[in-house]
Request: fold
Amino acid sequence: MSVISSFPAMPNRIAIACEYILALGGDGGQRDEIIKNLSPFSKGDADDDNEISVGGKTMAHSVIDEMENLELIRINENGNLSLNKYFLGGKKTSYDWQSLLQPILRERLTDFSRISQFKQEDVGDALSWFLSQDPFKPIAKSRQHADFLREQLQDNDPLLVTIGNDSRFQNLLYWARYLGFAEWISIGDNDLAIPDPSRAINDYLPTIFQSKKILSIDEFVSRLAKLCGVFEGGSIRQELEQRLKSAFREERHFSRSTSLGLARLENQGSILLIKESDAGSWILDLGKEQMPITSIDYHAKVRK
Reply:
């Protein structure tokens, strides 16, 4: 199981569960009691086992399972379920959990070296596929993606199971938007998803640049790939690209989704994309326009 296949384990429900367990204090509480109190059912709505949801488990049970996999919670020395010590260092009794958890979950879902530890191997794979798609051709939230998967991957590829049906794909889209890899739009009666990692890239910029103002494009790509394995050069993305029937990008070309993300960040003034020479450049692919980039200036416009 993972956050894609465990449908109840959505970011907002994980945030609610964290807030409740924090309120229990450092000692936490008994696992069964926590699940019971987090259940959406009142005593009169279900039987004593409260087994109403997915796969014979309540929604709360599934959420707690994934929180344990993600090591947000733990069994403490008293045998109770409590938050990871990371969240218990201060005296705060409340957090903006959606914002606090976002970078933590993004790392645990996309770090190639740790995804097995958190039992989330299929999430990065699915995100890599999504980011390989063309943002200038938004994807419908149902049906259309299955045709793309069959066209682009071999018949026995695991992604056909991971996100082959509408429910799992829509769960992926919820997580992709929360983590900063997607935007949603509605055109008439059609709900569409756009692979757009601009928010995620923006969050990584301080760590990528650290004390530097300008990085060569090769250094930028390398640092981003190490931080997040679903981008170009990242281990998760490379493994996915090897399984595609045909190459979606040429060597030293950004995918169109990353190109869109970088172009949007430049338009917002967060970065300046620089072309100094053709040597050592990567190509920004915006569909009808392609542009070589040799370095990136962080917060260039802000400093002026």
About this structure: The radius of gyration is 21 Å. Residues 89 and 258 are 36 Å apart (CA to CA). Residues 101-247 form one domain.
